[in-house]
Amino acid sequence: MVIKVRKARSEKEAAMREKMIPELYANEYNSFIGFEIMELSSTYSKARIKADSRLHNTYGSIHGGALLSFVDAMAGATASMSGYYATTVSANLNFLLPAVNTEYIYCECMKLKTGKHILVFDIRVTDDEGNLLDSGEFSFFASKVPVLGDNLKFGK
Known about the structure:
The chain has 156 residues and is an alpha+beta fold. The chain has three helices and six strands; from the N terminus they run ααββαββββ. The radius of gyration is 15 Å and the shape is globular.
């Protein structure tokens, strides 16, 4: 399912979205967890996943590993919107409340800093009521592989 996002601020942002969003949806894991992009830019992004029972842990809430990988995928996409594919350097997610009694889990990524090679994002994970479930900080390394380039493979 594609949710309508706000109009791109520039032609470059529109072109990167046009490339990134299909790549995110084509990923089998993202498809499995029900990844839905609500907003995607280099400074702010938002996505959601359905609180599907296939993602539950033994205790009936969404498994922390599923939440961490969801956030990592969204934050990585946000970092890549800066122009170069990015890879995770560090990931810190504080699990504050269990993800229960909600239809969707939302992830918001807000840019804190962009350096020459490192990008840092503030992360907020909420439920349908806006309750803060998880918070964290993710750092990414911007590769030399441009998002709008012809070559999608790292190391080439």
